[in-house]
Write a structure and sequence with these properties.
alpha/beta; 230 residues; 8 helices; single chain; TIM Barrel; 16% strand
Length: 230
């Protein structure tokens, strides 16, 4: 199975602060049962203004270290884009976005402020044949409990990626309740770890062990196993 949301690249965002941590997280993903992972570092214009080239350089360095340590984990490169005007500016400037092989584009919104003009920002991206994959929809408190709003996002064309730890109370009870609601409604397409640090890893191992995430994928017919590393 493939993890499609992780922050394993060193020294680029609020994920792994150094290569040693990156390697530790990759070893932990293998222990969780993953055979592949996409590195999806933040690209946020005012907080983590990473360029695609910078992330490629970090990715190449991590890939070499994984091979050096003989970790049985394939890695691919994508990114987690904050969906605002900066994404459209990149498209207008012919910058190739870091996406999954099927042009799935992992995107996020603010946790505190509901986005405005959703279709005005999503439609131009979709015109470039990207499929928008919304990261952790269960964590946006302004939508929690509002299944109609989630249905509207689905109608716009979003796929949903849920965080595994959202099914525990790691982020709180309301996130857990929303995650279960979306999962049981058949609205979740992918599960991801969104792993940033050792605390995430320890919690994931505690709650899911070696087979728990794979069991969820099979039980709810999630699409993680359809991924490959290009």
């Amino acid at each position: 199975m493939f993890d499609i949301h992780s922050h394993i690249l060193p020294e680029v965002d609020d994920g792994a602060p150094d290569m040693e941590t990156s390697i530790m997280l990759c070893q932990g993903l293998v222990e969780l049962g993953f055979k592949g992972v996409y590195a999806t570092s933040h690209i946020i214009s005012d907080t983590y203004p990473n360029s695609e080239e910078k992330l490629k350089d970090s990715f190449d360095s991590l890939k070499k270290e994984i091979e050096k340590h003989r970790i049985n984990l394939s890695i691919g490169l994508a990114a987690e884009y904050f969906l605002d005007e900066s994404v459209l500016n990149k498209i207008n400037n012919d910058i190739q976005l870091l996406s999954f092989p099927n042009k799935g584009l992992l995107v996020e919104y603010s946790y505190s402020q509901e986005p405005e003009k959703i279709t005005e920002l999503t439609f131009p991206v979709q015109l470039q044949d990207y499929t928008l994959v919304l990261a952790h929809p269960e964590r946006y408190n302004y939508w929690q409990g509002n299944l109609v709003q989630y249905e509207r996002l689905k109608d716009i064309g979003f796929a949903f990626q849920m965080n595994a730890l959202s099914l525990t109370e790691y982020y709180g009870k309301q996130v857990k309740d929303t995650a279960n609601q979306l999962l049981k409604a058949g609205m979740i397409d992918y599960i991801g770890t969104d792993i940033h640090h050792e605390r995430h890893l320890n919690a994931l191992l505690k709650y899911f062990g070696k087979t728990g995430i794979q069991d969820l994928i099979e039980t709810y017919s999630l699409k993680n196993n359809q991924f490959e590393i290009a």
